[in-house]
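New here. Invent one.

***
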Amino acid sequence: MGNGNLNIVFDLDGTIIEHGKPLGSQKAKDIVRLTSGCNLFFASARPIRDMLPLIPEELRGATFIGCNGGQAWKNGDMIFSNQFPYEEIGPILALLKTKSTPYVIDSEWKYSFSQKNMISRVILNHYQILEYLRKTSLGMALLSS
């Protein structure tokens, strides 16, 4: 992709990706043509590992922004991946279990989820969890222990 000053960002789901299916060849050709000389970005709430299969090889030189800004990837390299500090994981999981909240934990290339029946999947971003922990007495007790 180009080194121009213009940045062009495409959201995936519901914008250029429909029903979770990979980007069609005509759309890919149109994006290549329209973004020539520009900096191309693809953005999604999905983690990078779930974005890559949707985008054809000819567009993989773009920068990918995943997890609602929590990850960035370009040319095979993870530029950054925001994660909870190790010492905060235990209190967060304890809180989720106390509240019987189903959860999904994402890392750069793997994921894990709670054993609880997930009628509706709850995916929490780490800023939301930390904000919740800071505002509740249970959270303050967990964070200070």
